[in-house]
Each structure stands twice: as structure tokens, then as C-alpha cells.
Design goal:
DUF4942 domain-containing protein, two-stranded antiparallel sheet, 269 residues, four-stranded antiparallel β-sheet, 9 helices, 2 domains, alpha+beta, DUF4942
Length: 269
């Protein structure tokens, strides 16, 4: 499979990787020039500012592990990490790669991005990452269904501990007056499952439940309609989600049955 031209349609992997190489080369050359300027200044008994990095690189005014301020290799490494983090963030958002992730995978990537723990932004790493995500898409969509099932509150009669019923209570859909990204990510996992079970393409995460709820709230509505459910929210921040396709709900329950083989049988006891 040619991931460069077939799957990641909105971003050219080769171009992105080449641009990254060009930026890193220029950073390296710029630091070489700064080091040369510092040597000349010292020889001529001139002053020269200490090379420190901005807060964005997490080094400004802070001692390194050796007790000294950021040296050349540390400076270059920190700058390259920022380049790669921003590149991966753009790639995951604009290429549609996040579409194949469930909420758990997206949260893991968001944590890696915030910590700067990402692989080098090379064409090989990009294609390998996408191939891994694409290959795990079935497992991730089932995991998304299970995670959403597990987080349902059994304090409400409409939430049934042995299967999805006609309606579920979505706790903390709104948090501190804002749409809760984490909860809408989990609802996107359900939408993804519905689409796959319905024989349709997986939806673009950029047009997911977060956008659906946020747009409705901006229009001062307290409910929103989706092809697979009706969602209504309340002042306490919780939402009521009513499924629109009973046939697909039953197929989701078969997914639960594979992981909880005795769960559906509880209904008939």
C-alpha cells in the first residue's frame, strides 16, 4: 500500500519530510555561525550573549544536567524536538491519521506531543506510524466501544450493565461550561463503530462530535442531531444520547458479547 499517495491524501509525506530536513539543516548552520561568532568575539575580547533557548524549548535560564546552561548539542536537540512535535501535531490533525485512533490512542499521542516524546519526522517513520494505526483500526474501534460501555453510569435506569439499550447517559459531556473533548472523543469511537458496522467510511475526526455539540451550543441549542443518534444536554453537564439505529446497536452488543461472554445472558436470567 502506498501510504504517501493513497491514504494520507491531504498532506504530502515526502514534502513534509524534505521540508523538515531543510529546516534542521538551516538550524545546524545557524548554530555553527553563532558558535563561530562567539569564538571570534572571545578572541577579540568582545562580549557575546549566552546562547539560551526560549521557554518553548524548555531550556531558558535553566541549568542542564551538567549544571551548565544549554550547550550546542542540547540547543540543537531541543530545537529539533520542537520542529518534530509541531510537525507530528500538524500531520495527525490534517492528514486524517487521528481518524483511525480511538480515544485511548489519541490521548496517548497527545501526551507524547506535550512531552516532546515523538519519533523523528521522517518519511519512513510517518509511513510506519500510519501503517501501524491503520492495521490496528479494527482492534481500536472495538476497544473504543468497550471503553465507552465501561464508562457509562449505571446509576440511571436507561444505562444497562449488560448491553447498550435505546439510550445512554453521557456523563460530563459539558465541563466548566465547555464541551468536554475527552467525552466527545469517546462518542466519536461509537460513531466510528457505527460507520464500520454500517459499511461506510470512517468519519473525519475534524467533523466529529465535538464540532457537532459546539456548533449547536453556539447556536444556543441544547440538543443536536446525528445520523446515528440524538443528543440532548442539560445544565448539570450530562447528556442523553438516544440511538437512531437499533440494528447497529445490536451489532455493537455482539462486540461486547465477545469480550463479556456472560453479559448479554444476564438479561434473560
Amino acid at each position: 500500500m502506498d501510504t504517501t499517495t493513497d491514504v494520507v491524501k491531504s498532506v504530502s509525506i515526502v514534502n513534509l519530510a524534505n521540508q523538515r530536513v531543510a529546516v534542521v539543516e538551516r538550524v545546524h548552520a545557524a548554530l555553527d555561525l553563532l558558535a563561530e561568532a562567539e569564538r571570534i568575539a572571545k578572541t577579540a575580547h568582545l562580549g557575546f550573549p549566552r546562547l539560551v533557548l526560549d521557554d518553548a524549548y524548555a531550556c531558558r535560564g535553566r541549568p542542564s544536567v551538567t549544571g551548565e546552561y544549554a550547550k550546542r548539542d542540547e540547543a540543537e536537540g531541543a530545537i529539533v524536538r520542537v520542529i518534530d512535535v509541531r510537525g507530528w501535531s500538524y500531520l495527525l490533525s490534517e492528514s486524517g491519521l487521528r481518524t483511525f485512533m480511538d480515544a485511548q490512542a489519541r490521548e496517548q499521542w497527545d501526551r507524547q506531543l506535550s512531552e516532546g516524546d515523538v519519533p523523528e519526522l521522517t518519511a519512513a517513520n510517518i509511513e510506519a506510524t500510519f501503517a501501524q494505526l491503520y492495521g490496528a483500526r479494527v482492534d481500536m474501534f472495538e476497544r473504543g466501544v468497550i471503553q465507552c460501555f465501561r464508562r457509562l453510569s449505571w446509576d440511571y435506569k436507561t444505562n444497562r450493565p449488560f448491553k447498550f439499550g435505546k439510550r445512554i447517559i453521557v456523563k460530563r459531556l459539558l465541563s466548566d461550561g465547555c464541551t468536554n473533548h475527552r467525552v466527545t472523543d469517546e462518542l466519536d469511537d461509537l460513531v466510528r463503530a457505527f460507520c464500520i458496522l454500517d459499511g461506510k467510511s470512517e468519519p473525519d475526526h475534524r467533523l466529529g462530535t465535538y464540532a457537532l455539540v459546539s456548533d449547536a451550543r453556539q447556536a444556543r441549542h441544547s440538543e443536536a442531531e446525528h445520523a446515528y443518534f440524538h443528543l440532548r444536554w442539560f445544565k448539570n453537564g450530562n447528556g442523553h444520547l438516544t440511538f437512531a439505529r437499533a440494528d447497529l446497536v445490536e451489532r455493537m452488543n455482539l462486540i461486547l458479547a465477545r469480550h463479556y461472554p456472560n453479559a448479554l445472558a444476564a438479561e434473560t436470567r
